[in-house]
Amino acid sequence: MAGMSVTVLCAGGRRHNVKVTPNTVILQIIEEASLKQGLNPDLYDLRHLRRVLDSSSSVRYSGLPNRCQLEMVEAAVARLPASVTVHIATESGIRLVHDFPSIVTLWDILVHHKEHSGVGEEFLPAVESGKEVVLVYAMRRISCPELAKVTLRTLGITSGKCLLRHSVQSMSPGCQAHVSSSLARRPGHHLHPAPEEGDMGEALVAPGTENPAAETDVTMEEVPGVAVPNTAVSLKGTEPSALASHSGGECAAPLDLTTSPGPQGSPQPPRVTKIGDRNAIVFSMADAPPTLTGEEDDAFFKLSAEEVRRLYKEQRKALIELQEAPLMTKNMREMGESSKVLSAMHLYPITHLRVHFPDEHVIQASFKPTDTVADVIAFLRPFLACPTADFSLSTRHPQRTLCPSISLVAADCVPNARLYYDGETMEPFYLSEDTLAKKSSYSGACCSLNNINTTKLRPLGVSGKGHTLSDLSEPASSRRKEEAVDPEPRPHTSARTTGTVPKVPRWFKMAK
Question: In the Cβ-directed half-sphere of 130, how many Cα atoms lie within 13 Å?
């Protein structure tokens, strides 16, 4: 909103152009326009089209377009000076409440609470400490240089109550909220030329390193004769298979249930045994490759400088989008959620679930997005050692127990999800002996997903013709347009080649 301005039509018929920012309060626009006309700003309001604007609202939340025209009208009730009940919420959870006139500055409010409310010195630190007080009101950040100038009336608060969020932050030139110091570039280590024969891990070892198996940070752009992107990577001087290790934890992204890296030896043929409808398969996670179940060391979770910069940039972008996003009503939010649900049901007609039991056994089955959690529970009961036992299904990261009446698409279990069995049993195993007798291999469970015949979606996100999911969600009107420009000849359109005369109504006569 850089360079935003509004035009105010005053009572005398004169127009005034007022420059505003997203944090400008409507009351400030009234005062500036009234000052040029010599009017009392407490007796007037601003009207945009047929809507009278709230004088305490800001331009950010008033829904005003750039260069709009506002009309100054007489207020129904004059704004009389009154006291304001100010609530200050501190970081420690304490809320300070007191009444102040609307002309008092924010700095005077802080000084009053420091002297009379019994708060410590950290509530209003000295300048020599290198920290400053920051107050936040309606997404507006007010720091120390502005606290002595901004009054409650400047914020549009002339009566009633208000809430200010108080925090103490360190002074920094860039006002960075999450980074305390500038990020330094990680120095790269020079590498020896790669030998003709040898292991990959031995070739990429920095000079002066006694233990080749120790972890070494290298920069790929420093390898001579190799064109690779400028990315800092972490390699280990061990077997090449260790470079392809996967994390044993869970992530927020949808799970890829079809990838199963086989062992280094001769691969065993997958064994698949269906135990019922819904393409149900039972297998054990003990048969999974060690690369999927092994734990990563602490170095795997360390972030490089480039990753920290990227995360910080993403957080700033998300914060800017949140601040500039328009206000949405409850109906608009419900319509947005409904459209997301319908889009998920259209793109993913089948969802794949894996229910993990405490004894490392897993039941894999396919459901529809409209099925409820109660349908999944009823489907699992015949395979349990005690079908009448009470149990529930839950998710991890975040930990939440699924309500039986909720649908899978509403529970965010589409297109695939990993659920966990929560219940007790008196048997040695949670599943019955007949179910365990039909156990499949881990590789067979992964391969069975590719064999499921779906019309709109395959587990890998690719249809039989190689189209992606975005192509499947294309509306029918676009497909009809593509068919209309199809260069292939059609038999019913070649009337001239067959010599037939197209039929015309009787009243239609050709001109001579």
Answer: 4
HEC string of 155-167?
A: CCCCCEEEEEEEE
Give 218's strand partners: 233
Q: State pLDDT tens for residues 393-449.
A: 999 877 899 999 999 998 889 889 999 999 887 777 889 989 999 999 888 888 877
17, β-bridge pairs: 7
Residue 139: closest CA among 8, 298, 303, 321: 321
H/E element, 278: none
Question: Which residues lie across from 131 on neighbouring strands?
Answer: 170
CATH ID of 212-317+335-465, from 3.30.420.10, 3.90.1510.10, 3.10.20.90, 3.40.50.2020: 3.10.20.90
Q: How far apart are the first and last CA of the chain?
A: 66
What six digits make up the tokens of 212?
């080749």
Tokens 């207020």 belong to residue = 75
The Cα angle at residue 120 between residues 115 and 122, in degrees rounded to 5: 115
Residue whose token pair is 């070892």: 205
Q: Are 88 and 164 in contact (CB under 8 A)?
A: yes
Q: In this structure, which amino acid lies at residue 72?
A: M
Residue corresponding to tokens 């109906």: 331
Domain 5-74 class? alpha beta
Question: Position of tokens 């930990």?
Answer: 399
Model-level pTM?
0.38
151: helix, coil or strand? strand
